[in-house]
Amino acid sequence: MTKAALPSPELFGLTRRRLIGGAAALGAASLLTPGRAQAAGRIAVYSTTLPPVQRRMSEAFTRKTGIQVQSLRLPTSPLAQRFLAEQQAGQQLCDVVTLGHDIFFRNISEAGYLAEISDIPGVATLPPAWRSGERFATILIAPQSIGYNTNLVKGDAIPKGWRDLLKPEFKDQIIFSDPRANETVVIFMAALHDAFGDDFFRGLRQQNLRMVPSVPQGIEQVIAGEAKIMLPTLAMNMIQYQGRNAPVAIIPTPSPTSGTYFFSGVVANAPNPEGARLWYEFVLSREGQEILCLDNGISPLGEIPGALKPPADFVAPPLEEAVRRASHLYDLLGLAA
């Protein structure tokens, strides 16, 4: 097992070819129109952050600065493609971009699409491991854990760690986010394999995992009582169910685990550059981090109210290594590559 400093410089996701190809296929279509982000002191933030988190950040920022926030939320691949398509078409609509893929950020930084951020308050004081690149930084890490139906899994039956998933009562009761549709899960699988080896994966196979394309879909099925366990799950997946009496919860972060990293940068040709810089400063401030990380993730500022605590062992196999091992991991789980 390779123990990783928080955060790891490696991340999961799109290759440069897939990003460029996807952008070309998408074309220059956008939900925004030129000039709207700057009008009336407005900024446009492109982010994979879940809507409830983005909403509470945006509302607090507007109260503080008077600047309205127009958010575009898409999964990682479509958001990266949208951003690239607009940049390559010369449509300057986005002020700040945030998503979980450092290869994407390194590529757009090299392409000149990101602005210098060193002089923005909060950047220079980030711990070195969180300053991911010269023109972007890690603002949040969301560790992987286990979700469960609180009506069906109670008391001593609640898993305390990954090995508990092999208990007989969870046979046919585990929904798994299909790693063939999400490279984040390939990293997660590689981390578990480093920790527990082939036999653990063979045990998971005997549990008859039920594949779904995405974590949110799996969580909905767990809430509906169609299974007891959702694997893997992030704390942020639970936020939208708070106050709704939904029978779903997440266990405290097991150790070891991997996670999803959120990188962010200011766009070089942002329509509202000063507004974008103010947003970035707010995100890295203690006030902003308390809002962003509440019940959501690990903060670069350390232990702040409501933020998740890092697990004792955080492992992050490099993407290239995980992809090389994917076919073996699929075989262990009985999945066709």
For this structure, what is the CATH class of the largest domain?
Answer: Alpha Beta
Radius of gyration: 20 Å
Strand content: 15-25%
Number of individual domains? 2
Summarize the amount of helix as a percent range.
Answer: 25-40%
Report the average pLDDT across residues. Answer: 88
Number of strands: 9
Order of helices and strands: HEHEHEHEEHEHEEEHHH
What structural class do helix, strand and pairing data support?
Answer: alpha/beta
Dominant shape = globular
Q: Which spans of ≥5 residues are poorly predicted at pLDDT below 50?
A: 1-31
CATH superfamily of the largest domain: Periplasmic binding protein-like II
SSE topology sketch:
Elements: H1 16-26, E1 42-47, H2 51-65, E2 68-73, H3 76-88, E3 96-99, H4 102-110, E4 137-149, E5 174-177, H5 183-206, E6 210-212, H6 215-223, E7 229-234, E8 248-250, E9 259-266, H7 273-284, H8 286-293, H9 319-333
Parallel strand pairs: 1-2, 1-3, 5-6, 5-7
Antiparallel strand pairs: 3-9, 4-7, 4-8, 4-9
Helix pairs in contact: 1-3, 5-9
How would you characterize this protein structure?
With 337 residues, the protein is an alpha/beta fold. It has two domains: 16-140 and 261-293, D-Maltodextrin-Binding Protein, domain 2 (3-Layer(aba) Sandwich); 142-258 and 314-333, 3-Layer(aba) Sandwich (D-Maltodextrin-Binding Protein, domain 2). Helices cover 34% and strands 16% of the residues. It has helices spanning 16-26, 51-65, 76-88, 102-110, 183-206, 215-223, 273-284, 286-293, 319-333; strands spanning 42-47, 68-73, 96-99, 137-149, 174-177, 210-212, 229-234, 248-250, 259-266. Strands 1, 2, 3, 4, 5, 6, 7, 8 and 9 form a nine-stranded mixed sheet that branches. Mean pLDDT is 88; it is low at 1-31.
